[in-house]
Amino acid sequence: MSEFDAIVVGAGPAGTSAAIKMASSGMNVLLVERADPPGTKNVSGGVLWGNDLEKIIPGWEKQAPYERVVESKAVGFLTRDSLINIDFRSRRLAEKATGHIVLRARLDQWLARKAREAGAMVISGVTVERVAVQDGVVKGVEQGGDLITSDVVILAEGANPRVAIDSGLRPPLRDEDVAIGVKEIIKLGEEKINERFNLRGKSGFAGEYVLGFLPEGVKAGGFLYTNKDTVSLGVVVSMKDLRKNGSTYSFDIIEEFAEHPYIAPMIEGGKVEEYSAHLVQEGGIQGVPKLYGNGYMIAGDAAGFSFSNGLVLQGMNYAIASGIAAAETAIEAKSKNNFSEEALAAYRERLMNSFVLRDLLDFRGIQGVTWSDTVHRVIPRVMEGVFEQLFTEDSQPKKHISRIVMDALSRSGMKTSDAIIEGYRMMRRM
């Protein structure tokens, strides 16, 4: 007989959500986390989109340690000298509270406490080495030569899933599946943040940017989120491009982003309180491994569940939803005392009936857009050229808009015919 009904590896949003759901149903659950306390090794912050936590923690918004609610969402393109920005501000967006800005160190600790309150045994500061396999069936986990047994193991260990890889449950990560995320937490003060970003009360700003000014061959995106009295500033850099370039480093890119003439004023006078780096899943559906087998399931970032279409960047909601789906599958398996691969296949069915796999499938190949030379090189330069000509008055006859666009395309190095074809391809992928 197993020591636990379920063991969950990783106390991020996916793992804690799974533990809360299973423990609340009466299952004997062990949640193991290598960080002590949970969340201290996590770089990811930003926006928790959606309301999936309501399914396991009713009224969670009144309890959770979130920083602000998104009222202003920006998507921008940066060149060396310009910022071309789409800034959407809406009171209705804030009223719907569809996006909560969080700091993961605080959120993860709170979720771990909720798992403990639900009845799960939570152990932090312990690194699981691998899953224990007997006759092709996962029977628990191994750590320091000790075996802890369970009927099912849910691996929710984050973007660098060493346990799953070392246990042979998923292939090693490819460069095209991951990026490097680097983040700073900058102390500004609540009053200064409200003034600079035109915010009031709990309203917050979330901005993501294409860094179109980096050395050739390197692609990166930047982000800036307002917390209560700090700002989260960071970059996500293509691992593939970093390896190819060889002379550009992620810590240089975040400094260039922070010193950009239209980013620097937002953080001027701030003090860096934290600096961290981590892997970020960017592989889309192509980076998703086999999600289940005899006695195990993989959830959250460990399964490659993150999403970006160039306008929104999401991951925590996919982690929570997948953790709940894994827990529901485990509960059903427990009721039938059947944790075989065939029984746990219901996990994928649940994901297919939710937004998790549906989004990744519907936007298959979107990485070809978000990490393309067109988005990172051509579009920023073309937009800069178009707006510069539109808004420059030189006492000369004005050009037709079509001529302005063609001139900007020419300066960017892209032919008009190629731009039309690439635009059509991008729209299909999006």
Q: What does the secondary structure layout of this molecule look like, with pairings?
A:
Elements: E1 4-9, H1 13-24, E2 29-33, E3 46-49, E4 68-78, E5 83-89, H2 91-96, E6 99-102, H3 104-118, E7 121-124, E8 130-134, E9 137-143, E10 146-155, H4 162-166, E11 178-187, H5 190-196, E12 203-211, E13 220-226, E14 230-238, H6 239-245, H7 250-258, H8 264-267, E15 271-281, E16 292-293, E17 296-298, E18 307-308, E19 313-314, H9 316-336, H10 341-344, H11 346-352, H12 355-362, H13 367-370, H14 373-390, H15 401-412, H16 416-429
Parallel strand pairs: 1-2, 1-10, 2-7, 4-12, 10-17
Antiparallel strand pairs: 3-6, 4-5, 4-6, 8-9, 9-10, 11-14, 11-15, 12-13, 13-14, 16-17, 18-19
Helix pairs in contact: 1-3, 1-9, 9-11, 14-15
Mean pLDDT: 89
Largest sheet: 9 strands, mixed
Which class best fits the helix and strand makeup? alpha+beta
* Low-confidence regions: none
Rg, please? 23 Å
Task: Describe the protein.
By secondary structure, this protein is an alpha+beta fold. It has helices at 13-24, 91-96, 104-118, 162-166, 190-196, 239-245, 250-258, 264-267, 316-336, 341-344, 346-352, 355-362, 367-370, 373-390, 401-412, 416-429, and strands at 4-9, 29-33, 46-49, 68-78, 83-89, 99-102, 121-124, 130-134, 137-143, 146-155, 178-187, 203-211, 220-226, 230-238, 271-281, 292-293, 296-298, 307-308, 313-314. Strand 9 (137-143) and strand 10 form a beta hairpin. The longest helix has 21 residues, at 316-336.
